[in-house]
Amino acid sequence: MISEVFITCAVTGGAAARQPNVPITPEQIAEAAIEATRAGAAVVHIHVRDPKTGKSSRDLALFREVVQRIRKSDVNPVLNLTAGTGSDLVLGGPDSPLPPAPRTDMPGAIERLVHVEELRPEICTVDCGSMNFGPGEFIMANTPGMLSALSKRVQELGVRPELEVFDTGHLVQVHDLIKEGVVNNPPLIQLCMGIRYGAPDDLGTLMALVHQLPPGAIYSAFSIGRRQLPYVALAPLVGANVRVGLEDNLYLSFGRLATNAELVERAVEILERIGVRVLSPDEVREKLVLKVS
């Protein structure tokens, strides 16, 4: 067990916004991140959405507006921008998988990092592998070559990569990136549990992942849906930091829709009740040796 952790709030993802508190516009996303920071989150993980459709976007202007709004606010969270968008391979179906469907979005590594290069967050995420992502023909596609190029460029920019691990094989990729020299030690890792066709969120699977982590790794662990808040209590017991937020879970309790700030508040309450101290943004910067833009 560790006695102090940091909380990451993932304020909005790329999936359909299935409840009204999920932020969509840049103003809503920034305000959600600000409120989550006030509630106790040290890190805010940011995706952006097309304000007209609500769907996931890679639009630099949207990222720019969100980041500027947060940086001009009276809080100073550690900014963690996604670099996961741009790995969407949607096949044409069982009988005619090729050519890919028009919804496919697979730019090159440098294009995937345009927002990171301009805005220089302290952290950005790198999804460490490919997997079937839910039912249908959608594959999250990240080849070893793509991951090497992404990781190398992220570190050249002075940004800390957070390596997203969705299954045991993804940790093999993490070890390879470290051996290749494109990820520095100690790595920053996020164990993403409970996503369909990824690692299930039972304790045995979680411990299998923990036991395969590189020595000295700094890591977080979360689960989606109704297991998100139980994982807040579980994470410190296995040496992990905490992640909550509407990207991964929509409810505070049964039938009670959450806001990002409420999920962070509940996480702080759980952690304090089990004797775990919650780190501030500046303490996280020191712990992770982050380069501040």
Helix/strand layout:
Blueprint: E1 4-5, E2 7-10, H1 26-39, E3 43-46, E4 48-49, E5 56-57, H2 60-71, E6 78-82, E7 88-90, H3 109-112, H4 114-119, E8 123-127, E9 131-132, E10 138-140, H5 144-156, E11 160-165, H6 168-180, E12 188-193, H7 203-211, E13 218-223, H8 228-237, E14 241-244, E15 251-253, E16 256-257, H9 260-273, E17 277-278, H10 281-288
Parallel strand pairs: 1-17, 2-3, 2-14, 3-6, 6-8, 8-11, 11-12, 12-13, 13-14
Antiparallel strand pairs: 4-5, 7-10, 9-10, 15-16
Strand order of the largest sheet: 2-3-6-8-11-12-13-14
Mean pLDDT: 96
Tell me the total number of β-strands.
Answer: 17
Q: What is the structural class?
A: alpha/beta
Order of helices and strands: EEHEEEHEEHHEEEHEHEHEHEEEHEH
What's the tally of helices? 10
* Helicity range: 25-40%
Name the assembly state. single chain
Rg estimate, integer Å: 18 Å
Morphology call = globular
Work out the strand percent.
15-25%
